[in-house]
Specification:
By secondary structure, the chain is α+β, with helices and mostly antiparallel strands. The protein is 21% helix and 28% strand. The protein is elongated. InterPro entries: PsdUridine_synth_cat_dom_sf, PsdUridine_synth_RluA-like_CS, PsdUridine_synth_RluC/D, PsdUridine_synth_RsuA/RluA, RluA_PseudoU_synthase, S4_RNA-bd_sf.
Length: 306
């Protein structure tokens, strides 16, 4: 039997076009509206309705509950670290060297596979929906939405910059100036398809940075993203002249760490149920802490000039 959720049109929504009501008030994505339309899952006062119909104060709108039928990935038993969870989303602490989601020929062993198994154990069936991505070697905070509406709202927060991502990176050199903004568009690499390059015809890319500490010939840098281009932080720091330690693609080799020294330390967002600002932290992994100690051994940390 089909299940519907019922909404009453309020005075302030009188005269709204139905499609506008669905997008602005219920915050449904265009994709979900199309899916509901195909399933004849939108009823206004008990009757099927066109999306351009205007709603009136007191109207009754019934929306079909479209449930996911599968996870989208194969559930696989594995460890996940949950940093935050509510009825709409989770923030996980991704280990280094693990893919977020199956890609190419890799179909197992990803964070998405492990999360699907965790939800399966709870008898919850929902498509696994990462809201953003982290490179395989990058550790730290990553958000998964529990349903399509939550995914859409969180993606809107990303666009509106109320969902903020903060990273820490160990880089080669003493960063100067100690803080600033990197505004350099990113596009395809002219000869290497798995890389990106600074390209004036590419997509806009903006990274804000500040030095947390510096050592003899390395710096610990905090970064915040306005955009989320592939390899953005790694490429921007290399472009600035301070490549990430251990980054085999854009950075420099570093004996103190066997992967790129990049960690998604914090993520800040507006909680969906009440719009409260929430800040979640992923503790530094041991290999990052060890790498910092290697840098400190050369010279005691010196705080940058403010």
């Amino acid at each position: 039997m089909k299940k519907f959720t019922t909404y009453k049109i309020e005075k302030e929504q009188d005269g709204f076009v139905l499609e506008t009501y669905l997008k602005q008030t219920l915050q449904y994505s265009g994709r979900k509206i199309q899916k509901l339309t195909r399933k004849k899952g939108i009823l206004l006062n008990g009757k099927a309705v066109f999306l351009q119909k205007k709603v009136k104060f007191g109207d009754t709108l019934r929306i079909l509950n479209v449930e996911d039928a599968a996870y989208g990935v194969e559930p696989e038993d594995g460890n996940i670290a949950i940093l935050y969870e509510d009825e709409y989303m989770l923030v996980l602490n991704k280990p280094a060297r693990q893919l977020v989601h199956p890609t190419g020929q890799t179909t197992s062993g990803t964070l998405a596979n492990y999360l699907a198994c965790e939800l399966q154990k709870r008898n919850i069936v929902t498509t696994i929906r990462p809201v953003h991505r982290l490179d395989r070697e990058t550790s730290g905070c990553i958000i998964f939405a529990k349903d399509s509406r939550s995914q859409f709202i969180l993606e809107q927060q990303l666009k509106e910059k109320t969902l903020k991502r903060t990273y820490w990176a160990l880089v080669s050199g003493i960063v100067g100036p100690a803080s600033g903004t990197i505004d350099a568009p990113i596009g395809a690499h002219p000869s290497k398809p798995n890389r990106r390059a600074i390209n004036q015809l590419g997509e806009p890319a903006i990274t804000h940075y500040r030095t947390v500490a510096h050592y003899t010939d390395t710096s610990l840098v905090e970064l915040n993203l306005d955009t989320g281009r592939t390899h953005q932080i790694r490429l921007h720091l290399a472009h600035l002249g301070y490549p990430i330690l251990g980054d085999g693609m854009y950075g420099v080799r570093f004996s103190g760490m066997l992967r790129q020294a990049l960690h998604a330390t914090y993520i800040t967002f507006r909680r969906l149920q009440d719009d409260t600002e929430i800040k979640v932290q992923a503790p530094l992994p041991q290999d990052f802490i060890d790498a910092m100690e290697v840098c400190k051994k050369k010279e005691k940390a010196i705080l940058p000039n403010q």
